[in-house]
Amino acid sequence: MAGILALKDEQMKWNTLDDMDLDGKKVLIRVDVNVPVENGKVTDITRLDRIAPTVKEVINKGGKPILLSHFGRPTRGFDLAMSTQQVIPALAEVLGHRVHFASSCIGRVAQEAVDTMPDGDVLLLENTRFHAGEQANDPEFAAELAQLGDAFVSDTFSTAHRAHASVEALARLLPSCAGRLMQEELSALENALGQPERPVLAVVGGAKVSSKLELLTNLIKPMDAIVIGGGMANTFLAAQGYQVGQSLCEHTMQDTALDILAKAKAANCDILLPVDIVVSREFKAFAENKVRNADDCPQDCMILDAGPKSVEEINKYLETVKTVIWNGPLGAFEIPPFNAATDAVALHVSELTQAGRLLSVAGGGDTVAALKKSGAADGFSYISTAGGAFLEWMEGKTLPGVAALEAG
Ligand code: AMP
């Protein structure tokens, strides 16, 4: 990713590893080892790679890393298929250290494993979600976890929107800090949304207005401009009296869409809607399609992408901004050629970022997939892999796992 991501650490309200004396300390690290596993083998080590810097730094500082993580969504206690034990070979390889395992994250078993682990090794505890106290943010369960360590490092932004015991309550019981991955993520988001260089533009795409209503409403104030794309743009076009044919459209949300446009106007936030559209009779790859003006969707067609004039307009606008924050595709990107607008705009953001003219941050599951597919992802300043947490941050919500760290 581009190197223009200047970390404004002085703005950070939480401790980092630089603030902690970890020599000789037992250090509980909340990580996310919830990686895909097939036939007992880890098939994607991205998440393990990303926690490695923090774990290695803790060892280098003389600390004993004790890793806590959830795995999957167990509903009734222990479930072998969701044991964290299965990631140990891959984790050991990524870390280059021996990784021991404790078959419970609390109690005597965990305590013994902590007491007997040699210096320079790593201990991974069993899935925190095997205990109901984890998701209930139970103080007693958190206190049992806290007994195992002298300090706490949180390195999982992707779960920071959940008030779970190993994410929230635990951070309040021990001297705490953000790990390097968490720090990187928080810095990137703070630079894009907290005190961004202006003008700042948001690209909000995706399927429905209803799922991103809060996001759109909350972005009006901090943004100078918002590009609205994807299926949700259809609702805005319909609200303006345009025919949208068979398009995905939430007709009951039209008043809400008009309200958003009025609020944006009052706040001097420019809204960019498609001026032309790509329409087709079928929702399938390589379906016959046509470019039409935005007010000219035939009755038997659906809008599946923004057209070339819209792309030109957005890309021209991008030349005037300093910060871009992106969630959601501009069209049905999974079925070519309706990925064209998403690709063209993403590649332009990437080029401007690489030229040092933009800071660009993108996040959310579908968004990451769309940007990777376009080939633009590597050119962005920062891509957040945290789906729910990224959206909640963009919505301006307080994330429990981050707020708890502010206590230090
Ligand atoms: P979201 O999860 O809200 O970000 O929505 C992403 C989904 O919206 C993707 O699966 C896209 O295919 C879909 N999408 C984007 N634009 C359209 C469109 N014009 N019509 C139908 N689906 C769309």
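qc> The CA atoms of residues 226 and 235 lie 15 Å apart.
qc> done
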